[in-house]
Structure formats: structure tokens, C-alpha cells
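A common beginner's mistake is to predict each chain separately and then try to dock the pieces by hand. The better habit, illustrated here, is to supply every component at once so that their relative placement is modeled jointly.
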Amino acid sequence: MNNTKLRFGAILLILSLVLVACGGSTEETVEEPAVEEAPAETLAAPATTSPPPEKLLIWAEEKIAVALDPLVGAYESAAGVDVEVVIYDFGSIKDDVLTAGPAGEGPDLFIGPHDMVGEVVTNGVVAPIDLGSIQSDIFDVGISAFSYGGEVYGFPYATEAIAMFYNSDLVDGVPSTWEEVKAACDAAGTELCVGAPGGGGGGDAYHNIPFVQSDGGYIFKFDGGFDPSDVGLDNASALASAEFLDSLVKNGTVAATDYGASMSAFQEGRSLFWMTGPWARNDAAAVNYGVGLIPTFGGNAATPFVGVRGMFISSFSEKKVLAQSFILDFFATVDVQAAMYAEDPRLPATKSLFAIVEKEDPIAAQFAASASNGIPMPNIPEMGSVWGPVGDALLIIRDQNYGTNEDTGVTVDSAADAMKLAAQQVRDAIAGG
Amino acid sequence: MKTSTILKYILLGIFNALMFYVVPLAISYESWFLLIIIGIITFLINITYITNKLKPLKWITPGFVFLISFVLFPAGYNFYVSFTNWQTGHILTKTQVIERLEDLTYSTEEQKGVEFDLYVMQDSNLDFFFLADFDQDNLLFGRAVTSDQFEDIEYATHEPSFKDSNNNITIPESFYLLSGKEQIANSSTLQDLSLLVDKNTRIKLYNISVFGASSGRIFSSQQKYTYDKDSEILYDNRKNVACTLGDRGNFICGGESVDPGWRINVGTENYQRIVDDQRFRGPLSTVAKWTFQFAFFSVALAFIVGLLLAITLNNEKVRFQKLYRSIYIIPYAIPAFISILVFRGLLNPDFGLVNDWLDPLYQLFNIEPIRWFRTEESSKAAVLLVNTWLGFPYMFLIVTGALQSIPNELIEASKVDGATPRQSFFKITFPLLLVSISPLLIGAFAFNFNNFTLIFLLTGGGPPIVGADVSVGYTDILISFTYNLAVSGGRGVQFGLAAAVTTLIFFLVLIISAISFRYSKRLERVYGNI
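With all components supplied together, the output reads:
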């Protein structure tokens, strides 16, 4: 009895093995002829006889997917391609591309922010893209944002940068100097003057970076690419800028607010200005608002970080020419870009779309003007070691948390001390790998 | 045979089929560890269910399989990762790296940026031909081939006959011109084909346009990198240098390592870094101390609050018992991350409600308002406050349950013997409670030891420890400290290092738990037989 059972089991095992083997081989045989068998003997329209259409898998956030949805059908029928747009949470695309690509499960194309360029290139999961003639239509900031090691790695479709919201019931616009800002606040008599994220216990290097790099300071020296070995957080200009921020905090121009507090203060009319980006337009609409440039520093225009969003080609895609053609022939066209802008109004990265948007939306034009003074957020992997220390240092200044630390015995008595400390931490982190 | 037996074999067959389906996948990804695990599991399942001799195993095996896949495998994998250099720039396997590198083409300075119309056609043998329309003197035509056929192919020739007198492209009868759509249908083939112009120059399809004419680009006839398997040397054809294998899982070209690199085994290097690196060692003792304090006080405070409420509500004289119990469970029912963010707003020192409410007190006693999140003490207090709020309903629930399981006779008996309520609580109720609850307290301690969410969302580790060797805050616990170091290291994410620290934390928690369980076992021996 037992013997027969054993034999039965063995046969089942072998059977399942054979089944699997068959399954595997049929899969392989399907792949090959799909490309080879194209034309029939007659020369009339041979290629169309190849049965399975090519497929393109795209990962995009919901708004982009919604914008592409009504348009992509025209491309699909004209090109004979199946385009599948998978809706993805914007923030998780990078992590999933890093794991799914190497596992053979990843998309052909995906969207993402430019500051991940260095990391995905270093990891070898994206392929360079040749934008060719359309490159001249893209703002320089977009191209340099997506450049790494001499190659361009994505098609930029949207940019964003912070500027200054103002409460238009209380003030006519944003003055061009910080002294005038202070005077305007005193005249209006609001509880707070400028609400900017990055204080109140919540460090935020991104929102505060104009206070560092507008007047000669820099995080990494930019010369074609960002140089992680040249940190300029504690050069003379950066230290002077930090001291200037310190004076703005001391005289009450810049309030000790984190993001939430700066938002509620602006919405409740308790602050005159709010320093943040175009994503906050709906929140700002609680009051009548306008947008202007961040005031100048030592006569220099404020230099915010510009974030750029773009579409990448996966290095694991087996259809790179098709993927590139999809971008150049369809995605980059002004109609598609306009549809995306309508769904998700960030600033256009292309000049042709900006020419349209500029006339219709003066607020967007203001943000664009602010972005045109900015520099792209560094896209090198070393940037990961910057956010913490710089956020901490600026937090000390914004919250006026000076003094001697009992545990470390280190004294930070001034804004300059705080920046020197941050610069040292960044250098150590980069040196330590 | 009985139906159940047949069913068993069918299920077993399906299981085996699935397992064998995974085998080629595991091999193709070079995942040998997974392969071994699959082998063990398949063997165990088959041996258990095919023979009748191993009856007890029929119940144990499935549990064992789940133990392997959900506990041992992740822990083991984490352990394995801690011995690798898995980090930004080293996430692929060596084979994948070579494939990616060999995939790259390049153009010389003169070749860059030249864009022209490219026509794709096929002859009766279904071979592909490219026609590149540079200018009047260069209408280049030839067969498009893959790079391994470059040796035997003739260079492209200028064919003015492909244009008519109106400068329109005319194709001879013997060729078929592919439309954009047809090019796309064949794009997987076309993307590997080149039209060889001369020894160093080739033309490739670059943009297939379905609305206009497709265009081409000129590239060097060589790939950017070629790899020689036998000598393990990578040739950089653009710079014309030979790149050797580095010892960190990279190719080294002229002193510089090439990205991407691949994962290699680095031995105990990650562990050594924890010991040697000043950026770790400096803040480690501060962080470790606070981690223990945080975990201990979180459990203690939540337990005390839960216990007091449970005892109060356990008194039969309390009316609306059920209503109160439901109310006290609310903090448990709200997702923690929401309560944490709400608390963050409430505690805001300038605009938060908490300081608004406390304002009369501040004025009455003429003291400075608490600067929540900005000083060490207030941040730590806030963390413990919020965690107590999040944790007490759980303690309240289990203590209520445990209280109801303690027989009333014991308390009554002690009363008869003349014990005060306080005595009977401390001598009888409380020890009995501890017997059943202490494993849960240990669990809560281990959970809070790694309570990343709370710290990350509430304080982000802040306020920063000024002057520390690395960006670290007073409320950072070991796991959030590790997270910061691993993701904001010098150069991207360092999984290997993070895995090493989590392995250490794992053993730390293991030891603490083992000691505590031993202690609670003793409690059980003392009070268990009451």
C-alpha cells in the first residue's frame, strides 16, 4: 500500500516537473518570432501582420495618469502600442523602481523628482535619454537638473520653487528688500510678519535655503555638475547670510514657525507673508492672496531651490527606442504637456507651454520668475547628508536656541557657529561614506 | 483510494508545481539562498504528506514553514545583508552591472547632436535596411545589422537614386518602406540594428515618429564598454582604457570607480564601522540611554494609567461601566500616526492649544511658557506624554481582562483574615496580575524600543544635540538614529550598515526579553499555584 502511494507521489512530482518545463519552453518560443516574423511574402504591409502589439508600462502619479488617459488612446492606435499607465504614489516610485527594475518587474518609463537622478544613475537603473531637437524648448534649469556625469537622464515636464505669498487685503505686494518687509508688517500691525517653515522645532533646509545661498553661499559648488568635495556652507558669504537671517529673526521679521504654524498664521490673517511653494495655493486661498518674489539679499535676487519633475527610461526596459519615441513623439508635445498642466498646475518646464500659461495665470508666472532666479536642488546622492545638519543649523537660528550644550560641551553662540557646525557635519558624513 | 487522498495528492501536485516554477526564477536571479529554502520546504512537505510514518509532522510542518518564511527568512536575510556592501551604487548583481554597462553607446564630440531623417525598409528576405537623409551629398543607404555582424558587412553608400527630382524619397520596387507604426511593431529588433558608415561610425534609429518622419543619430561603432569574460577586464572604448576589478565591487578605470557597482560580501566591515566610526560612537551612549529610558517609561506610564483606570472601572459601584470603557479605548482605535500629528499641533509652543490652556497657570506662577519641542526636557516629556496616551488603552484592556480572571474568593478570604484593601491589592491582586501580564509588558517594551513611527512623526528626533558628530537629536532612539545614518549617509542609502545595526538591536532586545521572561517565570512559580 505504502509503496504504491510512494510511486504515485513520485509520478506526480515528475508530472509537475514536466508541466513546468513545458510552460517555460512555450514562453520562450513565443518571444522570438514576435519580432522576426514581421512581413509576409508579399511586400504589401508586411509588418502589421505581427500579432502581439508592443507594450509600454509607465508608472506615474494619479494626476499625470488622469491627464494622459484621454490622450494616450490616439497614440496607441496610431502607433499600435499598448500603453499601460499604472497609478503610483509619487513618493514611493523611486524605492520601488530600485527594487522592481533589477527584479525584472519594473516599468519601461516612470516619473520622478530630479533630486533622485544621482541615486538612480549610481544604482544603474535608469538609461540616458537623448532629447535632441526638443532640448532647446526646455528651460536650462530643467536640463541641468536632469544632467549627471555629462548625460541627460530624463525629460523634465514640471518645475516648482518657493516664492512669497502676501495677504492682499493687508499689503499691496512683496517689497523688494527685507527692511521694507519689516516696515510693511509694522504698518499692518499683524501678530507675525513672515511665516516660513523651518522654525518652531521643525527643521526644514529646503524652505530656508534662500537664506543660505542667495548671496554667495552654497551647499555644493556647481560647475556643470555638483562637486561634493566643495562645501560652501561656511564660506564668508554664507556666514554673513546666516547672521543676516539671525537679525531678521531677532527683529521679528521671520517668525519661529514650522510648516503647519506658518500656514495657519497666514490663513487666519495673523501673518502678512508666507514663504512657500505653488502647492500651497489652495491653502493660501483662505485669504485674498498674491504672490511675489522673495526679497533680495545684499542686492542679489533670492535663490530658492528649484525642484523639477521628469520622466525617466528604465535601464531594464527592453524597448528603449520605443520608450524614447513615446517621450519625444507624444509625451513632450505641447498638447500633452498642456493637459498635464491643467490637471496638476506646477510650473511648465518647456518654453512653449510657459508662453501659454504665463498669459492665463499671473500667479504661476510669479512662481516661475522666482524659479528662474533659483538653482536646481543638487541631484547627487551626497545631498542625503545635507538635509539633516543644515536643517538643524537653521533651526537653531530660527528658534534662537543658542548656548552651550551640556552633553557635548560645544558652544553655539551665533548663527555663524551654527553654520560652521553644519558644514563640518556634512564634510564628515561625506568623508565617512 | 478515498476522495480525500486524491484531493491530498492534487493539492500536493499543485504545491510542487508552484515550487518548481520558482526554481528557474531563483536561478536566473542567482538567489541561491532562496533556492535552498525552497528545496528544504518542498522536501519537508512531500516527505510529511506522502509517507504515513510521520504523522505528528503533519501538524508541525506547516507551522514550521510559516516560521521559516515569516520569521527566520527575514531575520536571516537581514543578517546576510549586514555582511554585504548593499548601498547606493551597489544594489545590482555583477551580471546585471555588466549588462547595463555593455548596453551603453556613445558619440564622439563630432558625432554629437547630429539629427536627420531615417527611413526603415525591408527587402524580400525580410532583412532591414536604413536610409539616412543627411544632405544632398549624403543619402546613405545600407543593410542594418547587429553589432556582431559588423565584420562581414559593407559600409553604407550614397544613393542619390532614392530621391526623385522633387527631392522626395522614392523607394525601389524591391524594397518595402515601413511606416512609423510598422517600425514600432519591430522596434525590439530595430533598436539593436545599426547602419555602418565607416569603421568608427554607425547610424542608429533614435526616434520612431508615427506622426512625422523617424529620425536617426550617429554613434561610435563601438559600445561605450566591452567586457572580456576570461580576463575579467572591462574596456572603456571612449577613453580607451582597460578597467580592472576593484575590491569594493566596482570596475576601476584609471583610478576612478565606475558606477554602478555590484553587491559583494564585506565580512564584518559594517559591524566594525559601528565600533570604530566616531560618528556612531560619539552619540551612541546618549542615544542608547534615552532608548532604554524611553522604552521603560513608556511601558511604565501606560501601565500605571491603564491599571488605575482598570481598577477604578472594575469597581461594581461605578455606573455606566461600559460607556467609560468604550471611551477609554478611543485613543487605541484612532490610527497612531493621526493622533501623533494632532498632538504635534496641540503642543506647538506658539500657537498650540496646550500652551493656550496652560497660559493662566504660567501667569499665575509667573513662569516661562514651556517651549515644547525646543528643549531637551520638553521634547522628552512630549514624547512620553503622547506615547502614554497611545499606550494606556491597550494596558487598560489587558488589565481589565486579567482582573476579571482573578477569583474574588481570594480577595474575600484575605478580608476575612483582616487584610486592608491596600494589602490585599499589593499582596494578592497585583502579583497575580503580573503573572499574566508580564509577558505582554515585555512585548510592549520590545515594541517601544523600536517605536520608530512615534519619534519620526512627533519630533523627528529633535531638538538637535548641538555639537554632536552627526545630525542627531535628544529624542532619537536607536532605530531612528540608525535610520538617519543609513539614509542620510555620505552617499545615499546604506542597507548593509542599517542591517548591521538592526541585527545588534535584535540581539539586544532578545537578551532583555530572555532575562525578563526568566524573571516572570519565577513569578509564575511563586504565584502560579494559587
